[in-house]
Structure formats: C-alpha cells, structure tokens
Amino acid sequence: MLCAFEKSNKVVISIHANTVLRKEKADTLYVANAMPEEGEGTAAKYLGSASALCWGSEYKNLVGLFTSLLYKLDFQLAELEWGKVRERR
Predict the structure, then answer these.
(1) Structurally, how many domains does the chain consist of?
(2) Backbone CA torsion sign across 14, 49, 52, 77
(3) CA angle (5, 43, 31) in 5-degree steps
(4) Distance between CA atoms of 66 and 56, rounded to whole angstroms?
(5) Were 76 and a residue from 9, 25, 39, 50 both cysteine, which residue would form a disulfide, CB within 3.0 to 4.6 Å?
(6) Virtual CA dihedral for 51, 10, 81, 70, nearest 10 degrees?
(7) 36: left (phi over 0), alpha (psi -120 to 50) or beta
(8) How far is CA 71 from CA 14, 44, 50, 55, in A?
(9) Residue 48: Cβ within 10 Å count
C-alpha cells in the first residue's frame, strides 16, 4: 500500500512513531511525511512536501492507521497540485 502510494504520487514517505502522554495516558503519535522524489534542493522539496499525524489509540489496527495517514497525505498533495495548476492559468 505504501509503495503503491509512493509510485503513483512520485514521493518518498517516512513514518515516525513516538510515545507521548495524552490525556494523562501513554499514546503513540504517528507522523507521516511525503517528500517529492525529485527536486532541485532542500527548499524545493520542503515546499512540495506534505505531512499528517494520527494517534494510535484512535485505531484498532495499523492498516487503518496507515490508510488514514495516506488519505491525509493524498489530500494535501492534491491541494499542492491544484495550486500549481491554478498558477499556470
């Protein structure tokens, strides 16, 4: 699922998990970042990137969590692409 998303959107995804206190209980915060495969430099890659986060306690399994992260990333990438299309007009 992750590989297919990377190929179709031409991005590289990284997912990080951190254990933090949330509402006085331990929870896992998952953060996904999508960076363009191509770019002229760090600034160009940063401007074309997207990130999303989810709390582990809100999902029953990792497939649901990863699916949610990918939907959020896809939405942000679509907004970036739409902005590029509108600029060309």
Answers:
(1) 1
(2) negative
(3) 45
(4) 10
(5) 50
(6) -40
(7) beta
(8) 15, 23, 11, 15
(9) 18
* pLDDT per residue of the chain (89 residues) written in tens, 0 to 9: 889 999 998 899 999 999 999 989 999 999 999 988 876 555 445 556 889 999 999 999 999 999 999 999 999 999 887 776 566 55
Instruction: Compute the Cα dihedral for 81, 39, 72, 66 and give only its sign.
Output: positive
Q: Which domain holds residue 29?
A: 2-88
Using the structure block, give the residue that is written with the tokens 């990284």: 14
Taken as a whole, the chain contains a residue count of 89
pTM here is: 0.77
